[in-house]
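Incident log, support desk, overnight shift.

02:14 A customer reports that sequence design results differ from what the structure should imply. Their input is reproduced verbatim below. On-call engineer (initials T.W.) acknowledged and began investigating.
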C-alpha cells in the first residue's frame, strides 16, 4: 500500500518509478509552468511527465534546474518522462526526437521515454529505436502510451525488450479493466493520464458521497482509487494549492466497498481520442 508521496513501484527492469507525479499537458511554456514544476518538487513530488507535442519541455527543464538548485536534490532524485510524437515515429527519426527532447529539457538522460500513440505501421520501428536508446544506457526505462491490448501484443511479439509502462486515459468513467489486467499479467506498469477526467467528475454524486465520508475532495478520492488499483497517476495542475491538495492522498484508504462503487461508474467514456481510431 502506498503511504508516501515518494513511494515507488519497481518496473520490470528494476527501475523505481514514483506512484505519483505531475502532468503538464496543455500548459504553455513560461513562468506559470516553471513555477508549477518548482512548487511540485518543493512539496515532495519527484516525478514530472511531459511530451514533445506539449511544446513545453524548455520550461519543464528550467523548472527542474531551478528546483534542484533550491532544494539541493540531485538529478537522480527525480523521475522525468517525455514522449516521441507521431510525426517522428521511425527508427532514425525517433532517436533524433529523443535528442531534441533532451536538449530542450537540458538533461543528460530521461528516466522514461514513451511512444505517444500507436500509429499503424510505424510504432514497431519506433520501438526498435527505444530499445537501442535503452541498450545504450541513454534512457532508464522505455514504454508506450495509448496502447490497447492488441497493440501491446504486436509490439511484444517482435520486441527484444518488453515495454515497461503503458500510459493511458484512465478515470472512473473509463476504468479499462481488461487492459489493466493484461498489463498486470505481462509485467507492464499501468499509468493514468487525465485521471480527473479534466475536471468532469467533480460533481459526481457517488464520488462526492465517498469524499464526504473520508473528509477528502473528489479529486483526492479518485487519485487514491488509482493508487489502490496499482495505477501510477500524474494529475495536472499549475496552482500550488491544488498541487499540494492532489498529493494529500496518503493519509487515508478507500474501503473495498468504496472501490467497488467507484469501479461501478465505468461507462467506457473517453475525453481523449480512441487509440483504435485517431487521425493525427
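02:41 Re-run completed on a clean worker. Output:
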Amino acid at each position: 500500500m502506498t503511504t508516501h508521496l515518494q513511494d515507488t513501484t519497481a518496473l520490470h527492469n528494476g527501475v523505481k518509478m514514483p506512484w505519483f507525479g505531475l502532468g503538464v499537458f496543455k500548459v504553455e511554456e513560461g513562468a506559470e509552468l516553471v513555477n508549477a514544476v518548482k512548487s511540485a518538487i518543493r512539496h515532495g513530488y519527484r516525478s514530472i511527465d511531459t511530451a514533445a507535442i506539449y511544446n513545453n519541455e524548455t520550461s519543464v527543464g528550467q523548472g527542474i534546474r531551478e528546483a534542484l538548485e533550491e532544494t539541493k536534490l540531485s538529478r537522480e532524485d527525480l523521475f522525468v518522462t517525455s514522449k516521441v510524437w507521431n510525426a517522428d515515429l521511425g527508427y532514425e527519426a525517433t532517436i533524433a526526437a529523443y535528442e531534441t527532447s533532451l536538449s530542450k529539457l537540458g538533461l543528460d538522460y530521461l528516466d522514461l521515454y514513451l511512444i505517444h500513440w500507436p500509429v499503424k505501421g510505424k510504432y514497431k520501428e519506433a520501438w526498435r529505436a527505444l530499445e537501442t536508446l535503452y541498450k545504450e544506457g541513454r534512457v532508464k526505462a522505455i514504454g508506450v502510451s495509448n496502447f490497447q491490448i492488441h497493440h501491446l501484443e504486436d509490439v511484444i511479439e517482435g520486441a527484444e525488450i518488453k515495454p515497461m509502462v503503458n500510459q493511458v486515459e484512465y478515470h472512473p468513467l473509463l476504468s479499462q479493466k481488461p487492459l489493466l489486467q493484461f498489463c498486470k499479467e505481462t509485467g507492464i506498469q499501468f499509468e493514468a493520464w487525465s485521471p480527473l477526467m479534466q475536471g468532469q467528475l467533480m460533481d459526481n454524486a457517488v464520488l462526492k458521497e465517498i469524499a464526504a465520508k473520508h473528509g477528502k475532495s473528489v479529486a483526492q478520492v479518485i487519485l487514491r482509487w488509482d493508487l489502490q488499483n496499482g495505477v501510477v497517476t500524474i494529475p495536472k495542475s499549475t496552482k500550488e494549492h491544488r498541487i499540494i491538495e492532489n498529493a494529500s492522498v496518503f493519509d487515508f484508504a478507500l474501503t473495498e466497498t468504496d472501490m467497488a462503487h467507484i469501479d461501478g461508474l465505468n461507462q467506457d467514456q473517453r475525453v481523449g481520442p480512441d487509440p483504435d481510431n485517431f487521425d493525427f
